[in-house]
Amino acid sequence: MLNLVHISDLHFGNPFLPEIGEALLHKINSLSPDLLVISGDITQRAKPEEFRAAKAYLDRMPPIPQLVVPGNHDIPLYRIFERLFQPYKLYCRYISESRNTVLRQNNAVIVGLDSTNPYFAFTNGRIRREQLDFCAEAFATASPETARIVVTHHHFAPAPDYKGGEIMPKAKRALDFFTGLKVDLILAGHLHRAYIGNSLDVYPGEDREHGIIIAQCGTSTSRRGRVREQEKNSFNRIEIMKDTIRIFHYMYFTDYKDFHPTAQHEFARLSQRNYLAESSLDKNNKEKLHTDSGKI
């Protein structure tokens, strides 16, 4: 089993809430995860002091692997020259030199993709064709039972309330591609409110039998929560087992000064659904063969 914690949109700078940050550190330590995923917007305005504070904070996390991807707030917005010519300089200096990464752990392959675009679609992001090829290469040697996870900052599916936050350009193309790669799960942030569902809820896709589980994370440590998570903070804990994926949604409660689970979702693994479908097909074929043989 892989036990991972997914946090997002820390927004170090003015929106960051130190008390919430300390509560999150305490909770993550108590959960003893195998892996920590941070899906972007680590800073508010991509300033050196914000990155330094974020780096110090992430260094206090449990000594487990971290998979981090940048968000649009991790690129300078108003420092135009820097945004055009050195958009990732500070991110690479303080957080990670790699913006597209692969992590293999506990019979899982987790691919982090940089969905930011400093020049066009700055807010909504973009996934490029070469990044899809990067995913295909990462999953090429994975066995059928290996869990396949994709992490980005920007979202591929709209929130259930459809308020704000247009999906990435060519998001449907990417979802079809990920379905072909048998991706089990997509993790993202950006919208500052959590929701958990399936890609088939919003897009039937080319393969109408196999959707991808989508788990969005709210803002884990900032005052920028939106809509139903306005002024709220949240994160997700995810258990990936042989047959199922369980997602626990945690929210911060001021009365308790702590994060507590508020919802649990359970899904059959895509590989297991394929196995069941193939088993059913084999059974039907055997029954048909037996029936035909009886006629003969």
TrEMBL record:
Name the source's superkingdom: Bacteria
> Which molecular function terms from Gene Ontology are attached?
hydrolase activity; metal ion binding
Instruction: Name the InterPro entries for this protein.
Output: Calcineurin-like_PHP, CNP_phosphodiesterase-III, Metallo-depent_PP-like
- UniProt entry tagged with the keyword Iron: yes
Q: Which parts pass through the membrane?
A: none
Task: Give a Pfam family name.
Answer: Metallophos
Ranges for domain Calcineurin-like phosphoesterase? 3-193
User: What SUPFAM superfamilies does the annotation carry?
Assistant: Metallo-dependent phosphatases (SSF56300)
Q: Which UniProt keywords apply?
A: Hydrolase, Iron, Metal-binding
The entry sums up its family as follows: Belongs to the cyclic nucleotide phosphodiesterase class-III family.
Q: Which protein, by its recorded name, is this?
A: Metallophosphoesterase
Q: What species is given as this protein's source?
A: Nitrosococcus watsoni (strain C-113)
